[in-house]
């Protein structure tokens, strides 16, 4: 029991309650020997009975008025009675262990404790593993609880992102620490191109830091095919610069292929929105969104000279195109977003439509009908349809190829099928009737073709000729009627002595009859005269023949058949 007798400026004079001379000071309690908080602790009032004290070593005894006084203290450096002694002046003294026992965190704990209340004073132990708290009871308990709630947050990030988190001159890491409230934030370089972000704080502050990092400093790594990686890089890095300007993210491409599948890693760094936009752009270009099959013959057209065709399509649509020529069925893979892919597919389809190619086989019998006289029929089909037609007659059956736009090819095919499926009609005529039908330089045949719309072919076989009529059914029948009308033969038998008069000198008489009547007159064997032509021409020719006969042989008779 130490009783406080009286106070001086900076000390309290005390005596033992069981001393031989009560009231005579035997001890001195200096202000510097009181527990120290952030504010001055008052000396005990006179009459206060202290329950415990610490005697200082003999060498620390002080002289006061010629009398040796024992110096006492309410601070226990050993810590055994610290809290008990401090409670005598209304304070608490408490030792709190640093979380995880890491000395480098002791300063953070000291700062956190002193921010818990104005009375708190915190001192670090020499080994840095404990923090001594002195202050009011509520504030000491609150500070101890806050220190106990501290935790570590760490995460691995790529080295490039680590430098981004540090920022220029450490500006960004200081901003993150201030906004999140963590006690410490460090970015340390690790092995293998990685950095470690270490933070120390309460659960609330570390969670806030995690959210800030995810929002402002996130990263993602995506694997893309090697040929796509080169497209992402672009000529002289132009592709990366374009993507970075478009999304605001930082792009890094490792063009060295990894694994058997020959893929390359693309690393995207930036804020959450920028990374999300860049990843969406990369994902729709890492795999083909659609494929368009093209014929082998059009590969050169699609690619163009030195790739100009592909470049034009990509510039117009915004998509990426890759022509696969290794397989038998060539295809164009299209990469890009939905709008770009649709536009590129439409452009490719237009190109295919403009360069359509169809083929069909026809029978050898139908080939002449398709070609026409002097290939006039095939030229007419090409002119009317606008398509280009090639006929390979060496193949059996003949092959017809039609090239051009899809609409032109369709029209040409319809015309070809129509020509190849025409009706045919054959008839035999005497050779002189066929000659009359043909006319001079084929004018008669051309007239029949013009009037009927059918094709007429003549083929001579000695005394007789074969006539073949080809065309639509509605055209063949009128042509046959015209041929029949122009090829009727009437015969008359004349006396042998009259034959020379009918022919005339140098054939003058018979030529005159033919010229005047328009019929064909032929003198054959057995004094038979044949007249071929239209009804009117035959009648006129026969009348002229009878006139010649009557003039030569007035009493002669003829027989007609």
Explain what you see:
It is rod-shaped, with a radius of gyration of 60 Å. The strands form 8 sheets. Strands 1, 2, 3, 4, 5, 6 and 7 form a 7-stranded mixed sheet that branches. Strands 27-28-26-29 form a 4-stranded antiparallel sheet, with helices on both faces. It has a 3-stranded antiparallel sheet with strand order 8-10-9. Helix 5 crosses helix 6 (203-216) and helix 20 (508-517) runs antiparallel to helix 21 (535-552). By secondary structure, the protein is α+β, with helices and mostly antiparallel strands. It is 39% helix and 29% strand.
Brief overview, please?
By secondary structure, this protein is α+β, with helices and mostly antiparallel strands.
- Please, what is the oligomeric state? single chain
Mean pLDDT: 82
Q: Number of helix segments? A: 21
Which class do the helix and strand fractions yield?
alpha+beta
Give the strand content.
Answer: 25-35%
Estimate the global geometry from the Cα principal axes. Answer: rod-shaped
- Characterize the largest beta sheet: strand count, sense, and whether it forms a barrel: 7 strands, mixed
User: Could you give the distance between the termini?
Assistant: 175 Å
Total number of strands: 29
Estimate the helix proportion, in percent: 25-40%
Ranges with pLDDT <50 over ≥5 residues?
556-561
Which value, in Å, is the CA radius of gyration?
Answer: 60 Å
List the helices and strands and how they pair.
Blueprint: E1 2-7, E2 11-16, E3 27-30, E4 49-50, E5 54-55, E6 62-64, E7 67-73, H1 82-86, E8 92-97, H2 106-114, E9 121-124, E10 130-135, H3 137-148, E11 151-158, H4 159-166, H5 171-180, E12 184-189, E13 194-201, H6 203-216, E14 218-225, H7 226-233, H8 238-247, E15 250-258, E16 263-270, H9 272-286, E17 290-293, H10 299-303, H11 308-317, E18 320-324, E19 331-335, H12 338-354, E20 356-361, H13 367-371, H14 376-385, E21 388-392, E22 399-404, H15 406-420, E23 423-430, H16 431-438, H17 443-452, E24 455-461, E25 464-471, H18 473-486, E26 489-493, H19 496-503, H20 508-517, E27 520-523, E28 528-532, H21 535-552, E29 559-560
Parallel strand pairs: 3-7
Antiparallel strand pairs: 1-2, 1-4, 2-3, 5-7, 6-7, 8-10, 9-10, 11-13, 12-13, 14-16, 15-16, 17-19, 18-19, 20-22, 21-22, 23-25, 24-25, 26-28, 26-29, 27-28
Helix pairs in contact: 2-3, 5-6, 8-9, 11-12, 14-15, 17-18, 20-21
């Amino acid at each position: 029991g130490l009783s406080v007798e009286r106070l001086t400026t900076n000390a309290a004079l005390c005596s033992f309650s069981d001393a031989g001379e009560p009231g005579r000071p035997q001890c001195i309690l200096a202000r510097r020997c009181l527990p120290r908080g952030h504010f001055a602790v008052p000396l005990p009032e006179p009459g206060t009975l202290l329950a415990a004290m610490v005697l200082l070593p003999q060498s620390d005894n002080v002289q006061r008025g010629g009398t040796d006084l024992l110096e006492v203290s309410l601070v226990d450096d050993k810590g055994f009675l610290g809290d008990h002694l401090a409670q005598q002046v209304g304070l608490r003294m408490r030792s709190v262990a640093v979380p995880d026992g890491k000395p480098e965190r002791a300063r953070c704990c000291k700062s956190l404790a002193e921010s818990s209340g104005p009375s708190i004073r915190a001192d670090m132990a020499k080994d840095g593993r404990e923090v001594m708290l002195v202050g009011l009871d509520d504030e000491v308990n609150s500070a101890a609880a806050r220190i106990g709630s501290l935790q570590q947050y760490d995460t691995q990030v790529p080295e490039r992102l680590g430098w981004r988190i540090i920022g220029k001159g450490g500006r960004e890491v200081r901003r993150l620490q201030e906004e999140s409230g963590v006690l410490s934030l460090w970015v340390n370089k690790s092995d293998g191109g990685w950095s470690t972000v270490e933070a120390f704080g309460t659960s609330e502050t570390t969670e806030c830091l995690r959210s800030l990092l995810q929002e402002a400093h996130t990263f993602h790594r995506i694997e893309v095919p090697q040929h796509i990686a080169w497209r992402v890089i672009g000529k002289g890095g132009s592709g990366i610069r374009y993507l970075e300007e478009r999304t605001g993210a930082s792009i890094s491409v490792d063009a060295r292929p990894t694994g058997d599948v020959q893929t390359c890693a693309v690393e995207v760094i930036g804020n959450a929105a920028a990374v999300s936009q860049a990843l969406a752009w990369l994902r729709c270009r890492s795999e083909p969104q659609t494929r368009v099959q093209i014929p082998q013959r059009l590969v050169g057209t699609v690619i163009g000279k030195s790739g100009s065709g592909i470049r034009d399509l990509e510039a117009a649509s915004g998509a990426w195109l890759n022509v696969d020529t290794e397989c038998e069925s060539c295809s164009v893979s299209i990469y890009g977003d939905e709008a770009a892919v649709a536009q590129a597919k439409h452009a490719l389809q237009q190109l295919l439509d403009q360069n359509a190619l169809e083929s069909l086989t026809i029978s050898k019998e139908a080939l002449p009908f398709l070609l026409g006289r002097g290939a006039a029929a095939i030229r007419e089909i090409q002119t009317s349809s606008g398509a280009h037609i090639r006929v390979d007659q060496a193949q059996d059956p003949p092959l017809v190829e039609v090239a051009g736009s899809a609409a032109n090819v369709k029209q040409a095919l319809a015309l070809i099928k129509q020509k190849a499926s025409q009706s045919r009609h054959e008839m035999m005529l005497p050779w002189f009737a066929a000659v009359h039908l043909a006319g001079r330089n084929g004018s008669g045949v051309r007239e029949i073709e013009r009037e009927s719309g059918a094709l007429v072919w003549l083929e001579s076989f000695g005394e007789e000729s074969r006539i073949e009529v080809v065309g639509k059914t509605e055209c063949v029948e009128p042509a046959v009627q015209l041929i029949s009308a122009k090829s009727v033969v009437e015969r008359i038998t004349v006396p042998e002595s009259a034959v020379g008069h009918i022919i005339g000198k140098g054939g003058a008489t018979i030529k005159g009859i033919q010229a005047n009547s328009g019929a064909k007159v032929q003198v054959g064997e057995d004094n038979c005269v044949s007249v071929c032509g239209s009804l009117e021409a035959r009648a006129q020719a026969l009348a002229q023949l009878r006139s010649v006969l009557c003039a030569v042989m007035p009493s002669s008779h003829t027989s007609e058949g």
